[in-house]
């Protein structure tokens, strides 16, 4: 499906929150690397996809109505074998059925476990005065607890992207300290510029999180994505 | 008449060929001292003035008219100083007459937050839709443009400068102009535009950005309608912009679906705007004035390294801490500089030749070593500019005769002799005598183009922000 088709389909179904696979499909168009993620609707499908992707894999519940997947017991990490995948699939459904007995579930998403990198978050929201604004920060607990994030109004210049990354307090972590490898900062700058152009192209998008993006010495990879559409077309 | 050609809408605002004063007072004394007709006359306005008052044949020697419709010629600019309930009817007449721009002074519209006020403002908005007349206001002071002969306050200087000031506030705007002109700054134009039902900050900013008579733009802003246009204009602006954004809120309403939106607030977005556009953020009217003093009286500074010269070790140490906090450096002086200082201070007891330097400023007055010392410190290759601080209170207390003259002379001499940018701070005190003395010396300094600040804190902050501005622009 093209990005426009994904947006129209969600609208037709009365949804503003895109699914994980839809969000990732859209982000791909921006040029930012996104981890391959597929929807599986049965045990046989989930095992077949896992075999094809290669282990370890991650399974996540796919439902339009469940926002906090982990709290629902809807996330299983580091699954090493087809047996583990099958078992995890059943556990996810049991747990979700208990916690959300009445919600519709589309299946589970499958993705390969990404190699570890420095977790960062890139997001977009719309300010009432200035329109789309991008956010950058360290992901995981850094964003949760320390709120170590900073902002730039779209469109970003190269200088904006460079200074945005460098002004967060945790920037030394990206530069590599204490034996850690430095991450590819130029690639992160490019990701910000790509996202800036992308959100300008799609005014239908109201909010967006790429959380986390794994930053590596040789590039970066969006591991999770969430897109919220404007209510009115 | 007043300008080569009136082809820009704003030329009708700042350089109108004719001005109608709707609601000129029948009390001549009142109109002369407090009215717009009086101000236009006092400011030597060169166009036609049409006082409007149905009861009068003549006001301050000018033929008065009962209504705008009776004015024989076209009217570029009308200043409406009538009670708010009369405003809609009068505005209709202006639209019918084809007045180019109307300034509505009256308050009591949407800013009240009352239903009646909002309704009345809506009425004005509907009236201007029926014609080509543009409106400034309501709820505002209007225009100060000395070269155009317009001023909303008779006390403002008649002399022109190169600052353009766009202000949502009226009383605050007037206070700012008084503070700034008292410090020797001069304005090309100022406009207090109030509720901005028509002409708003974007219109004025577009004009200021390309106005050849404007080299520095000052904005006092509360609300904004077209943020994206504002952002783009600021980003493209090649002139320094000092921006006081009042009314910032902390972010994160929480009622949003994304992580990003939950972390964002208007404060963070405005901070982003300042970083992206290079506009200089100030928090108070006073800080805005200090910032403009730095931008208008100092050349772009080449670096952040400061030589401090003044009397009082503790004052110097505190100043060093302030400098460091604001990102300025107070480096040790070179050996050669210290040798040169040592050779001249042998006779001055208590002098120090580190940075801060205490030289030529004894308890009994200023010695000739003061200017020499400033010159030597300024020639140090580790120093980009000089701040000298002076404490008139001591001299007044000890009754040092001729101190004021000596120090004024020394500062004027230093301004010419010191090869690097040179800043003076007068340390204030709570006594009328000290204030008067400071004002006297400061006035002389301003006449000579010397950068004077009212406190160390103000000087250091403003200088640091100026350096940041020029660095950001050249990057």
Main sheet characteristics of chain B: 6 strands, mixed
Quickly count the helices of chain B. 18
Name of the CATH homologous superfamily of the largest domain in chain A: ATP-grasp fold, B domain
Distance between the termini of chain B: 43 Å
- Output mean pLDDT of chain A: 93
Number of strands of chain A: 10
Ordered list of secondary-structure elements with their pairings:
The complex is a heterodimer of chains A (233) and B (475).
Chain A: H1 3-12, H2 20-30, E1 37-40, H3 43-53, E2 57-62, E3 75-79, H4 82-99, E4 107-112, E5 118-127, E6 131-138, H5 140-146, E7 149-153, H6 158-167, H7 171-175, H8 185-201, E8 205-216, E9 219-222, E10 225-229
Antiparallel strand pairs in A: 1-4, 2-3, 2-4, 5-6, 5-8, 6-7, 8-9, 8-10
Helix pairs in contact in A: 3-4, 6-8
Chain B: H1 9-14, E1 18-22, H2 28-34, H3 36-42, E2 48-52, E3 58-59, E4 62-63, E5 77-80, H4 87-97, E6 101-104, H5 115-128, E7 134-136, E8 142-144, E9 163-167, H6 171-182, E10 187-192, H7 201-210, E11 216-221, H8 227-236, E12 241-245, H9 259-263, H10 266-277, E13 280-282, H11 285-297, E14 306-310, H12 313-325, H13 335-345, E15 361-362, E16 365-366, H14 369-378, E17 385-390, H15 392-397, H16 403-417, E18 422-426, H17 432-447, E19 451-453, H18 456-474
Note down, in words, how this protein is organized.
The complex is a heterodimer of chains A (233) and B (475). Chain A folds into 2 domains: 3-34 and 115-229, ATP-grasp fold, B domain (D-amino Acid Aminotransferase, Chain A, domain 1), CATH 3.30.470; 37-112, ATP-grasp fold, A domain (Dna Ligase, domain 1, 2-Layer Sandwich). Chain A is 38% helix and 28% strand. Chain A is built from 8 helices and 10 strands. Chain A has helices at residues 3-12, 20-30, 43-53, 82-99, 140-146, 158-167, 171-175, 185-201; strands at residues 37-40, 57-62, 75-79, 107-112, 118-127, 131-138, 149-153, 205-216, 219-222, 225-229. In chain A, strands 5, 6, 7, 8, 9 and 10 form a 6-stranded antiparallel beta sheet that branches. Chain A has a 4-stranded antiparallel beta sheet with strand order 1-4-2-3, sandwiched between helices. In chain A, helix 3 crosses helix 4 (82-99) and helix 6 (158-167) packs across helix 8. The two termini of chain A are 19 Å apart. Chain B has 3 domains: 9-143, Rossmann fold, CATH 3.40.50; 160-297, Succinyl-CoA synthetase domains (Rossmann fold); 306-474, Succinyl-CoA synthetase domains (Rossmann fold, 3-Layer(aba) Sandwich), CATH 3.40.50.261. Chain B has helices spanning 9-14, 28-34, 36-42, 87-97, 115-128, 171-182, 201-210, 227-236, 259-263, 266-277, 285-297, 313-325, 335-345, 369-378, 392-397, 403-417, 432-447, 456-474, and strands at 18-22, 48-52, 58-59, 62-63, 77-80, 101-104, 134-136, 142-144, 163-167, 187-192, 216-221, 241-245, 280-282, 306-310, 361-362, 365-366, 385-390, 422-426, 451-453. In chain B, the strands form 5 sheets. In chain B, strands 8-10-9-11-12-13 form a 6-stranded mixed beta sheet, with helices on both faces. In chain B, strands 2-1-5-6-7 form a 5-stranded parallel beta sheet, with helices on both faces. Chain B has a 4-stranded parallel beta sheet with strand order 14-17-18-19, sandwiched between helices. In chain B, strand 3 and strand 4 form a beta hairpin.
């Amino acid at each position: 499906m093209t990005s426009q088709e994904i947006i129209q389909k969600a609208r037709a179904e009365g949804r503003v929150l895109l699914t994980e696979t839809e969000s990732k499909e859209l982000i791909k168009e921006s040029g930012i690397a996104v981890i391959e993620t597929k929807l599986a609707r049965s045990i046989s499908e989930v095992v077949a996809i896992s075999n094809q992707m290669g282990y370890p894999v991650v399974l996540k519940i796919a439902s339009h109505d469940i926002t906090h997947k982990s709290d629902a017991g809807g996330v299983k990490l580091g699954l090493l074998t087809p047996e583990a995948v099958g078992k995890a699939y059943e556990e996810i459904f049991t747990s979700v059925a208990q916690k959300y007995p009445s919600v519709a579930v589309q299946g589970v998403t499958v993705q390969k476990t990404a190699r570890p990198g420095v977790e960062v978050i890139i997001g977009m929201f719309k300010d009432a005065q200035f329109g789309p604004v991008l956010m950058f920060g360290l992901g995981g607990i850094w964003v949760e607890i320390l709120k170590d994030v900073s902002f730039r109004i779209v469109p970003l210049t190269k200088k904006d992207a460079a200074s945005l990354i460098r002004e967060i307090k945790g920037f030394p972590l990206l530069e590599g300290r204490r034996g850690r490898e430095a991450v590819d900062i130029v690639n992160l700058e490019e990701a910000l510029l790509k996202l800036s152009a992308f959100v300008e192209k799609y005014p239908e998008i109201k909010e967006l999180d790429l959380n986390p993006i794994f930053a590596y010495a040789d590039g970066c990879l969006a591991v999770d994505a969430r897109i919220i559409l404007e209510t009115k077309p | 008449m007043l300008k080569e050609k009136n082809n820009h809408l704003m030329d009708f605002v700042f350089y109108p060929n004719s001005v109608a004063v709707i609601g000129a007072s029948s009390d001549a004394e009142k109109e002369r001292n407090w009215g717009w007709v009086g101000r236009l006359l006092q400011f030597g306005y060169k166009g036609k003035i049409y006082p409007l008052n149905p009861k009068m044949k003549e006001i301050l020697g000018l033929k008065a008219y009962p209504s705008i419709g009776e004015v024989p010629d076209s009217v570029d600019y009308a200043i409406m100083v009538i009670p708010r309930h009369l405003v809609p009817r009068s505005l209709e007449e202006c639209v019918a007459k084809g007045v180019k721009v109307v300034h509505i002074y009256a308050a009591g519209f949407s800013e009240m937050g009352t239903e009646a006020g909002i309704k009345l403002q809506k009425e004005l908005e509907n009236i201007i839709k029926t014609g080509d007349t543009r409106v400034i206001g309501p709820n505002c002071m209007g225009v100060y443009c000395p070269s155009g002969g317009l001023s909303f306050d008779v006390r403002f200087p008649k002399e022109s400068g190169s600052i353009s000031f766009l202000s949502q506030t009226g009383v605050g705007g007037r206070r700012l102009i008084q503070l700034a002109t008292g410090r020797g700054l001069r304005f090309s134009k100022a406009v207090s535009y109030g509720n901005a039902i028509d002409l708003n900050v974007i219109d004025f900013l577009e004009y200021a950005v390309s106005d050849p008579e404007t080299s520095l733009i000052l904005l006092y802003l509360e609300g904004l309608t077209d943020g994206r246009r504002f952002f783009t204009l600021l980003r493209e602006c090649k002139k320094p912009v000092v921006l006081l954004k009042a009314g910032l809120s902390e972010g994160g309403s929480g009622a949003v679906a994304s992580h990003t939106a939950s972390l964002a607030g208007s404060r963070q977005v405005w901070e982003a705007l300042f970083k992206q556009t290079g506009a200089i953020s100030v928090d108070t009217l006073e800080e805005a004035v200090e910032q403009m003093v730095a931008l208008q009286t100092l050349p772009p500074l080449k670096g952040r390294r400061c030589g401090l010269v003044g009397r009082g070790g503790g004052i110097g140490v505190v100043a060093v801490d302030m400098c460091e906090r604001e990102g300025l450096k107070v480096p040790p002086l070179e050996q050669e500089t210290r040798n040169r200082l040592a050779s001249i201070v042998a006779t001055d007891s208590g002098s120090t030749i580190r940075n801060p330097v205490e030289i030529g400023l004894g308890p009994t007055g200023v010695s000739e070593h003061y200017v020499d010392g400033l010159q030597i410190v300024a020639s140090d290759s580790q120093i980009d500019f000089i701040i000298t601080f002076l404490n008139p209170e001591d001299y007044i207390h000890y009754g040092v005769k001729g101190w004021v003259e000596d120090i004024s002379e020394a500062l004027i001499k230093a301004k010419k002799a010191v090869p690097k940018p040179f800043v003076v701070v007068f340390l204030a005190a709570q006594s009328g005598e000290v204030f008067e003395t400071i004002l006297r010396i400061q006035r002389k300094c301003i006449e000579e183009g010397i950068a004077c600040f009212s406190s160390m804190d103000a000087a250091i902050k403003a200088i640091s922000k100026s350096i940041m501005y020029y660095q950001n622009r050249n990057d």
